[in-house]
Every structure is written in C-alpha cells, then in structure tokens.
Amino acid sequence: MNSYxxxxxDLIVDATTxxxxxxxxxxxxxxxxxxxxxxxxxxSYSGTAKGFERCLEKNTPLATRQTMKQAAQxxxxxxxxxxxxxxxxxxxxxxxxxIPLPELLEGVKRDLAWLDDAAVRxxxxxxxxxVLDHPILGPFTVDQWLRFHxxxxxxxxxxxxxxxxxxxxCRISPLNAHAGPPSPTTRL
Length: 188
Known about the structure:
By secondary structure, the chain is mainly α. Helix content is 56%, strand content 3%. It has helices spanning 3-16, 34-58, 68-79, 101-126, 142-170, and strands spanning 132-134, 138-140. A two-stranded antiparallel sheet has the order 1-2.
C-alpha cells in the first residue's frame, strides 16, 4: 500500500483504539463523534477511488482548470500542511452516525486498499497530470490526492484525540475531583 495511505490507516487505528464501538456515543453538541469522523474519512477515501475509476472508465482525466485561488489553497494544504478549521464537509461525505466503529474500521481498510489500487492504475494510465477535482481545492494529480488524504486524516486524528480527551475529563467522578484540572500539556 502507498505509504501515505498506510499512514492514514495507522493514524485511524491508533486514534480509535479503546473508543466505544457505539456510533452515537460521545457526540458533543454539533461536533462529530469519533465514529462519525471515521465514517467521514471512509467516505472521502471511497469517493476518491470512485473518481479515479470514472477517469479510467472514460479514459480521460476529469480535472478542470485550476484557478489562482485554488492554486494558493492547494499550496497551503499540500505543501504547508495547513488544513483550515470549521469548513463544512461536502454533503456526499457527511457521516450518517449510524455505523458501529468496528464496521467502519473494516470499511476504512477495504476502501484504502481500493483507493491504493485505483491510484496505481490511474497513475499508470495518466502519469502525473491532474486527473480529478477536489470539491474546494480544485484539480489534483494522483499523488496530490494521496498526500491530501494523509493531511486530511491527520486533521481529523487530532479531533478524535481531542474528543477522547474531553470524554475522559467529563467522566471524572466527584471522588476524583480533588485531582484538579488537566495539566497544560493535556490535549483538549
């Protein structure tokens, strides 16, 4: 498997180890639960794989021309690793919140393998040209897509870890209240 995609899998497995398998537990307000975050990532992986498959079926790249704004945003995300907070996810990759985490983790493994295979075949046919548009950032090459998925996964890994930490803090019983607030190094 491509090293970026293997890293995606490793980050998700590490971040979710010990998380409740119930998909609705631990949703905090309008913030997604860890399971919902994983579902969103799975949908993003399968969506890109489907896009690569469409390019192969049509035997042509489906990318549009990149705008200056998209070029600047792509540079910030792919070269600087900057992933902006608070942006709404496209509707087709919003989580349903109904799938148990173990099922999602199996789906992530399956869809990352599919994405890896589709990426290899797409790169073989089209080389290093831009093949498929990201809904916000515009056209990417195959390698840019794989790098994007790693940066996107890292962004959400931080959210999963923060939700887990917040969940632990919320579960401190009155008997443990004397322990005081979390240390300044605790991730929230």
